[in-house]
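Bit of a strange request maybe. I'm writing a small parser for structure token strings and I need a real example to test against, not something I typed by hand. Could someone generate the tokens for this chain?
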Amino acid sequence: MKLWVQGAAILLLLVGGSIAGCGKSFKGDADSASGRIKVQIIAPGSVTNDTAATTPYSFAVVDLLDVYDLVSSSGKYAQFYTRASRVEGHLLGTQPRGQFLKSKEGTFVPKNFLTQQIATLYYHAQNLVRLETSLDFDSKRNKPLKIVLDTPVLNTKQNENNAFFDGDLDAIVFLKYSEGNLPLSLNGGVFAHEYFHSIFDKLVIRAVKNSDVFSIPIAINKLINSKTLDDVKNKDLSEQVKKLTVKLAEGPVTLDADNVKWYYSLLIKGFNEGLADYWGWQYVNDSAFIAHSLPQTITTRKLDLKSQNIETLQLLSEAEMLSIVYQVSESDEEKLDLVNAYSYLLGARVALFFKTYSETVQRERGLSDTEVKKNMNQTVINFVKSLAKSLPQITMASAQTELKSPYALMYDFITAQEIKNQNECNLLRLFLENDPNWSNKLECVASGQSSSSQFKLATKGVQ
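Reply from user aminoacidic:
Good idea to test on real output. This should exercise your parser:
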């Protein structure tokens, strides 16, 4: 039976079935425990290192670390809230109480769905916090991550089938799930996606929050319905893009202050979403991880060329970005919906680039899964750190006549990379040459003393 098909009701049956059908003896209600605890959760085999797992999500026994009290669901890595509310900028709520049975082998097995969520989420929080602390950047997490469950609304119009990171509360919020598939709270890729938003928030969002250029709310917690996403992906902007491409070839386009803000709202949210999608993919090694919970996203968020309706690895050009910004809406709320929807389109392409680059680096350098993740995770964090330095330098005056395009951000990223061979270099060259500013203008040249193992991108005729 596929675990994600029948939703929470079947999960409850499966939890009960795992207790009754595994041939083990259990105590009654288990006493609480602390420290290192063996618990049965539901997770991808790629995360739990279960090579025998035959479905994307299955039961696994894992170690929860540094648990203060299992029943009260608290520990070094996570703290849980239910029936939560925001009061004067602070998160208030009820601490849930887990209910477990304990096998003779010492494994704690959740007795209900809420407990299954808590155990599984603590495990993912533990993994992602430990990953964060292994990376080289300042302001790393030094306190438990707040996780909100069973709360209908927290300052958002979306009251179900969504998960989001709330930067003001420093909390990941899971709203009610009713899709009938794998609940979002048990989706490891979704959790990793939301966790990355907490890193981006600390490094980038806080760095630009006082800038007038980035003053439009980026609505990170707003779920765009699948119809809007499909409409955006299939909308034909070619005529407007063509006109803008010609105009940009003649010189910079001058924008008013409002359109500058819309442009950079689209840019920063697109990269935030895209890097978070990459973080989710690398954690669970699944290019369609969101679709296990929200099947309709298979046509908009899956990380492959066909799903993105493109033939080559590419982002949105400056002309495409402007054509989005110039679309007329009846209200700021409608415009925000539109820009949010397009940010997911840009984000999916950003994620696809980093996924493809990661796969290329692994193949060309003969790296193991563990080695390439360590390498690429730090590479992504270095990019985020560079955004935190460069984006706050954009002023309204400069932005009105000279915009930072998605490709300009990626050019800065690519030229900072250590390119090991011709194949890696060609991937990056062809990607950048999708931008009219770089079309047929770049070449790969050997550099350094060991010319066979080190390459760089250069403008043709200039080395």
